[in-house]
Amino acid sequence: MNALILPGLGNSGPSHWQSCWEKEIVGARRVELGDWDAPDPAVWIARLDDAVSNAGPDAVLIAHSLSCSLVAHWARRPRPIRAAMLVAPADVDSRDRTPEPAWTFAPMPLERLPFPALLVSSSNDPYVSIDRAKTFAGAWGARFVDIGDKGHINGDSELGGWAEGKALLDDLLSL
Length: 175
Hints:
six-stranded parallel beta sheet, globular, single chain, Rossmann fold, alpha/beta
């Protein structure tokens, strides 16, 4: 598997499950998207496109937070991939829930994704309401999983290597 790790705003620190997966999953690599604190959508989309081009059709996107929006924007391009796991999407359309740098990815694309996708959300994520996350999943044609009260499903959630998430990824890839 060519797993492409796509962190969100600010990148994913050492206690984030994405950082654990980058070390544990054979073939996983973090995509350097550009400025993690002042994202430029055109740059991020181009870098993701280059990474997918190099990874080939077996690429699996593992996106967190703002990078869920990145994947939705990038999906308008005709490159085939195996699947995408979208975790804790940041609601880039909400000025109340997301910081200003995330707004550059608004409006959130709501077209069906042309590849299998799984959206994992938390019922108490400060960056997206559970109803809005369900709206994204429905629009994108993604399977939806609510993992309960896990905050933003990041390093602060203290998930470590997040075994439940790996099981969800395995499930997605078995389809």
